[in-house]
Amino acid sequence: MLFDVLRTEVEARRRQVLVVSGRPGAGRTALLSVFAERARSAGFDVEWVGISRFEPTLRTDLRFTRTPLLLCVDDLHHADRASVRSFVGSVLANRTTPVILVLSVREATETYREITAELRDHRHYHHISLTTLSADGVAAFARTAFSLALKPEQAAEVLRLSGGNLNLARMVLADCDSQAAETGADCLVLGHAFNQAVRLVIAKLEPQVRAVARAIAVLGAPGTPRAVADVAGTGVAEAERAMAELGAVGLLTDTGYRHPAAAEAVLTDLSLHEAQVLHLRVAETLRGLGARALDVTRHLVAADHVDEDWSGFLVHEAVAQAVAVRDWGLVHTILRLALRGAREDESRAFILERIALVQSAVDPDACCQAFHEAATVRSELDLWHRYSPVLAEQMVRRGRGREAVAKLTVVTESGDTDLAADRLLVRGEYPALLAEWLEGADDRADEGRSARHEMAWSLATALTSPRRDREAARRATNALYGFPHATEETAPAIAAALTALVYAGESETAGSFAERFAEDSARQRVPVWQARFTAVGAEAALRRGRHREAAAKATRALSLISTQAWGVRVASPIACAVLAHLATGDRAGAAEYVNRPLPAAVFDSRHGPVYLYARGHFNLATGRVRAGLADFRSCGRLLVDWGVDRESVAPWRLAAAGALLTLGDQDGAIDLIEERIGQVEAVLGDGEEAAGAGRDRRSAVREQVFSTLVAAAVSGDVLGAVDSLLAGGQITVPAPRVPRYKIEDRYSSYLNKLSRSERQVALLAASGCSNRNIARSLSVSVSTVEQHLTRTYRKLQLAGRQELRAKLG
């Protein structure tokens, strides 16, 4: 070993000088420590002198004895050159003590150049230049120091992370050893030891180099020397030298720090204020260099700084780029930061409106909050003129449908804006308001309607038309083809048109469109729209009997946004999930959804009856038959009161009849079956039928429904029975067959002889209603009631109302 050579030389020649040079982290101090240990073992006196920037003067009052001396001077480059010359001169002038002088000095410093030039011709001078580790050196060091057997690729990775710096490599291996001890994982994980090593390396560098190191860490990449110099507050030449030194110590490459953990460690000791100042400098530098607005903005956000000038930059440049990459969280952050720098009311209102529009499809509550703030700057009427679709949508979600229609009406009356489509969309969500539309409160003209109006009209028609309106389905489909993407203005209308297709029996078309719009919304990263379109897709799959697909889509829709973000609409995907799980026999899965809390206003919307229908089937399936029957009747009561009593919305009569049969109430079930048959006949027309044909038709339908539901009541699968009856068609009458059960009640044979209108009048009269009350209930004239009764008496061969009550009462 070298020490043995030096010891032999010093015994013969009295003095030896060894200069150990290398870059920071090359292992100079470690080598001096090995020399000191060997010297003590050999009987040398050992004296260690450590130089730092804080004590740069070397003392020269050395006392020499005749005992061999190893004199180690570490970090000589920190000492002032005058004291270095004096110190080395005094050691070399000693003629009595055998001395080995070992000087540790960093390369590429003035002290290194001077000391090597001075000693180069000295006859007892030796020089060791420590170089970086190699991959083989890393593997050998790992075996020696940590008993780690590294694979070649692991040794190469340690070398890459440390840049060959011995101290950094030691800490990388220390973290690896610690991780292996804790978890048994055979991997390289940078942790606390590496962080400390990087911080120690940085602490030993000159202040200017440290400033450059931090500047590069904040920049995220070295960039140009000019950019680094501007951020660090140094000259370009100083920045270049510092970057070279950071590369020499193994931290930096041409593309930045060797690992993000190194950059993180460099910034660890910065105060919050220092970090903010650096980020602001970076933002100013990047903006001056014409960098991307988003790159500038991220540093502004980190600096938490904005003023009037920066506010305009954020709103008009940064937001556009953030929108382009669909980073809505960043958009919201940018706009909120810009808002702090805006001083004019007009600028503040504009920013708040942008925030509201962005959040409408991401966080509806944040959207409402932004509009509320904007209303303190701009008038509410003005906001409704500008953003009526978004504002109406938020009110619908929160259960304020009637108020939304009132607002839209006021806005229409106060200007030339026609908001009929928006009003109709609201009415489609709250069917109680459709009566006003049917009475002509909204424009119902076919000419000149926008595509949004067409889609809103299709849902309103599907809800109110007694039959499946093929024209409404056709118009909805044509309108949907005109929208390749959803926006905050068109998304509610698209969802309405998709629902109209489902109600019109076009579930396959609706499902195809819904999947397309859901996928597009996912690409745009707008979860609210994605959730709504996915929910409609689930409903379409349920109608087509694809129960597992429906359950998966409903679950997906509910997971995309919170219940609060869904608002009253949450009832529909919950209902779909419940029905889909029940259809597959998964009662536990249905229970997870049926007990979820709902907004109070949900039963004012069209989603409430759908939920009641689903919950009724859940109660029926779990043995709570009376609770299920109550849900079905509540569902029917709402649909009847709103005038949207359609089986396409919820076939509550069939379900309730099944519940009654489960309870053994055949009369009640037959009444509901008769009502359902009456609805079917209403679709076919209310004209006079041939007595035989009408009687055969009603009998066949009634017997089919009755026998199916009786079997379901026995097996406990009313939901499956209802689905099978609906799948068989509401209008098409099956071929006559011998039913399993015959329905013999006290009045069915009489009712078969009457038309639908006559039956309605006859039953009311038999229950004791006066002609005036009957007329009011059926919205017909008293004269019409009297005519129906006259024909009823003739067909049934009755003398009058008293006999009618005896036969049908």
Please provide a written account of the structure.
With 809 residues, the chain is mainly alpha-helical. The chain folds into 4 domains: 2-129, 3-Layer(aba) Sandwich (Rossmann fold); 135-308, no CATH class; 382-642, Serine Threonine Protein Phosphatase 5, Tetratricopeptide repeat, CATH 1.25.40; 753-809, Orthogonal Bundle (Arc Repressor Mutant, subunit A). It is 66% helix and 5% strand. It is built from 42 helices and 7 strands. The strands form 2 sheets. Strands 2-3-4-1-5 form a 5-stranded parallel β-sheet, with helices on both faces. Strand 6 and strand 7 (256-257) form a beta hairpin. Helix 17 packs antiparallel against helix 18. The model is unreliable at 686-693 and 729-744 (pLDDT under 50). Pfam families: GerE. Residues 747-809 form the HTH luxR-type domain.
Give the gist of this structure.
The chain has 809 residues and is mainly alpha-helical.
Quickly count the domains. Answer: 4
* Secondary structure tally: strands: 7
Record the strand order, biggest sheet. 2-3-4-1-5
Structural class: mainly alpha
How much strand? Answer: under 5%
What can be said about the biggest beta sheet? 5 strands, parallel
Protein name: LuxR family transcriptional regulator
Domain HTH luxR-type: 747-809
Pfam family, one: GerE
GO molecular function, one term: DNA binding
